[in-house]
Every structure is written in C-alpha cells, then in structure tokens.
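task queued by scheduler; priority normal; single chain, no ligands, no partner chains; default sampling; output format set to structure tokens
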Amino acid sequence: MCKKFQIRAATSADVVAIFELIKALAEYEKLSDLVTGNCEKLREHLFGEHHYIEAIVAEWEAKIVGFALFFPNYSTFLTKPGIYLEDLFVLPEYRRQGIGKEMLSYLAQLAVERDAGRLEWSVLDWNEPAIAFYQSLGAVILPDWRICRVTGEALPKLASGEG
C-alpha cells in the first residue's frame, strides 16, 4: 500500500500552517479562547536564535494536515533527557490514515537517537478515542499525576513572592 502522506521536520515556511492547526486543535478541545499567541512568536521559538521547541508536520499531497510540537525535558530518576510532546493534531478528515501513529513513531525514533529515557505527553481525560489510541501503542496513562500550571496574572504574582 502506498502512503499518501509524509512526516518531516517543520521548516520556517510551515509556521502559518502550523499555527492554523494549533487554532484547529484549540477549537477541537473547546479552548479557542486560550489561544493568545501568534505566528511571529511561534516562528521565533521554532527557528529563532533560541530554539525552545521543535515540530514535525504531516503532509498530504503538499497540504499540511497535522503537526506535533515537542521540546526536551529531563528525568532526574533516570538521569536522562526526554522528549515532551506538547501537542499532536491531525485534521479530522485525515484521521485513521496512520498519520498520528507515524508521527509518534517518528518522535520515538528521535528519542532513541537522542538516548532519551522517555517520550511523554498529556491527554485530556474526556478524550477517550485518543486515550484508546495511545494505549494501543503501548503508552501508559498515569492516573495518579496531575498537571500543575501557573499562568496569567498568577505567574508574576508568584514571581514577586506574593503567590
């Protein structure tokens, strides 16, 4: 069977398409009101002087239909670096074609090449299709861990010692 898509590292020319997919992801998660960023900052963080993040894209007949955005993390228990997958999204009409699985495989290959101790990400507890998909690939959903986040006005407040 011939694949109709390819997975590749993102380039600067892909930033606008990636940002459109970020907005589509936010809409899917019913979190569109939280998108306050822009293409320029995304481009700067992907390809500027300091690379904070990396991305791969899924391309279907020259159209970008999915992306994965990730960055390094570290396990003190393993004393090894890791890869944290911030977002993985495929447009609904391109799902069930193997794109998500191949993107995760690509990231797993990067983790192996970089001698990473783990590849990890979060999934919303209501997203049963994604949970089942991730488990089918061997991912373990950690029930005892919760994400802690300080953002907005709470961040400078904590930084000033008021938090």
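post-processing summary
- The CA atoms of residues 156 and 162 lie 9 Å apart.
- Residues 5-121 form a domain with the Aminopeptidase fold (CATH 3.40.630.30).
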